[in-house]
Amino acid sequence: MPEQKPKERIRNFGEVALGYTEQQAVIEAGRCLECNDPQCVAGCPVNIDIPGFVSQIKNKDFDKAIGILKESNALPAICGRVCPQEEQCEKLCVLGKKGAPLAIGRLERFCADYERDEGVKSPEKPKSSGKNVAVIGAGPAGLTAAAELAKAGHGVTIYEALHEPGGVLTYGIPEFRLPKDIVRQEVDYIRNLGVDIKVDYVIGKIKTLDELRDEFDAVFVGTGAGLPRFMGIEGENLNGVYSANEFLTRVNLMKAYRFPDYDTPIKCGNKVVVVGAGNVAMDAARSALRLGGEEVTVVYRRSEAEMSARIEEVEHAKEEGVIFDLLTNPVRILEGENKTVTGVECVNMELGEPDDSGRRRPIPIEGSEHVIDADIVIIAIGTSPNPVIFAGSEELETTSKGTIVVNEDTMSSLAGLCAGGDVVTGAATVISAMGAGKQAASTINRYLGNQF
Predict the structure, then answer these.
(1) What confidence score (pLDDT) does residue 359 get?
(2) Over the stretch 335-366, which tens digit does the pLDDT of each residue have?
(3) Given phi > 0 = left and psi -120 to 50 = alpha, else beta, which region is 103?
(4) Closest to 44 in 3D by CA, of 64, 69, 63
(5) With contact defined as beta carbons under 8 Å apart, do 384 and 225 qualify?
(6) Residue pLDDT, tens place only, 94-141
(7) Which of 37, 33, 49, 48 is CA-nearest to residue 83?
(8) What is the pTM (predicted TM-score) of this model?
(9) How far is CA 240 from CA 10, 341, 375, in A?
(10) Fewer CB near the last or first residue (10 Å), C or N of the chain?
(11) Calpha distance 89→85 (Å, rounded)
(12) Mean pLDDT of the region 379-389
């Protein structure tokens, strides 16, 4: 896919990948083998008819292609950009056994962008079921559940804590990977299904889950995992230490990258250390470069083989000049004048036997202590659900990690209450949250139809 050149894109927040032309999309779709037993569909968490929409691209009927996509996925422009297709549908593509798999994600993006250019058509509103459902959280899980429930005829109200809907799509993923006008387009489509979205509404403070259960016929909880984790090392409270959540929320939701046009400043610094190696770490590192960081280093205690970030994101970060200091673990953040950061003391690691995650356990190497100079440190080692959602709802069962316990087959937790996405699994992918939202909506539909 055409892209901005690295030397150009590190000076702007414009989208890196530029999308297929019609000719490129048709040529790529023509590579599909039209398998009798397509395995790619089994790899899609929201069960898109992949051969169906690809076939329509091949026939140059792009309207039919987007129609097929939207039968299963209300957020195709988002999924086409941030879904890890290489680990899902494309991983199972037969073409991938001898060469490059079909670029399913890029074709999905093409269809969504084509529709956007031509004008998104308002969906037909179904006949009302007379039932009303509350959805907590306007992130990928909540938006997907809301769309599915609205298409079934239920009245749906989404309660969102932030001042804009989208969840991690809005506050977490940078503009250069997912433009916010794309998110707004997808949210507007869901609004046009009849979904009411109330922003600045913190469940657990304004109302409890129990109060919503009394007020609505069913409830879905999709509040994500917005509470950052820290390492618990000396110096994490110094000026210049961010959680990745705070850093990216300032950059994305609060538009710090457009300061002073927007009134949220952000201190980026010259030498930035990002701790972690997932997609969030890549987003933070690449954002720091664009904000003027002269030297941005990703520090990770395992090797590149264990990194959880998408291969594409790692490659883009390397192209842009991000330094990767692998098999390295921070043990202390060093303090300078006025409680500011001056560096990160680290120790080298080696990999031992696999731990509970299946990855080889990192073991410190004695005498390998060293310092990486830094004036900004961004901690990107994971998140957990914010416990405020559970206030006043003692019946809800949670784990020691703060996630909601559900039946994995139905996503149900209490009678009439389902949950899904990161609030159940911990931090995961956008598409897995969408899959959970769709699964929960199916359960709620059966519950409201007295099919349990």
Answers:
(1) 83
(2) 999 999 999 999 999 999 988 878 889 999 99
(3) beta
(4) 69
(5) yes
(6) 999 999 999 999 999 999 999 999 998 877 888 899 999 999 999 999
(7) 48
(8) 0.93
(9) 22, 6, 6
(10) C
(11) 6
(12) 94
Domains and CATH numbers, the chain: 6-118 (1.10.1060.10), 132-226+384-448 (3.50.50.60), 230-379 (3.50.50.60)
| Residue in the structure block whose two tokens are 């691209």 | 57
pLDDT band at 394 (very low <50, low <70, confident <90, very high): confident
Query: Beta strand pairing status for 341-354 and 370-373?
Result: antiparallel
The contacts of residue 356 (CB under 8 Å, 6+ apart) are none
Judge whether 197 and 222 are in contact, CB under 8 Å. no
Can you give the pLDDT at residue 431?
93
Contacting residues for 146 by C-beta, under 8 A, at least 6 apart: 135, 156, 158, 190, 193, 195, 220, 437
**Which phi and psi angles does 79 have, rounded to 5°?**
-60, -35
How many distinct helices (H) and strands (E) make up the chain? 15, 17
Sheet holding 376-379, edge to edge: 241-243, 376-379, 271-275, 295-299, 323-325
**Higher pLDDT, residue 198 or 393:** 198
Strand partners, 128: none
CB within 8 A of 38, min separation 6: which ones? 50, 51
Beta bridge partners of 106: none
Provide the percentage of residues in the chain whose pLDDT is more than 90.
89
In this predicted structure, what is the pLDDT of residue 40? Answer: 95
Torsion angles phi and psi, residue 327, rounded to 5: 50, 45
152: Cα within 13 Å, side-chain hemisphere: 21
How far apart (Å, rounded) are the C-alpha atoms in residues 317 and 319?
A: 5
The tokens for 314 are: 């790692």
Lowest mean pLDDT across 89-93, 263-267, 322-326, 419-423? 263-267
Q: pLDDT (tens digit, 9 = 90+) per residue, 169-210?
A: 999 999 999 999 999 999 999 999 999 999 999 999 999 999
Q: Rounded to whole angstroms, how far apart are CA atoms 449 and 69?
A: 26
Structure tokens at 376: 């900004």
| Chain length of the chain | 452
> Cα(151)–Cα(233) distance, rounded to whole angstroms?
49
Q: Which amino acid is at 144?
A: T
Taking the CB of residue 248, how many other CB atoms lie within 10 A of it?
24
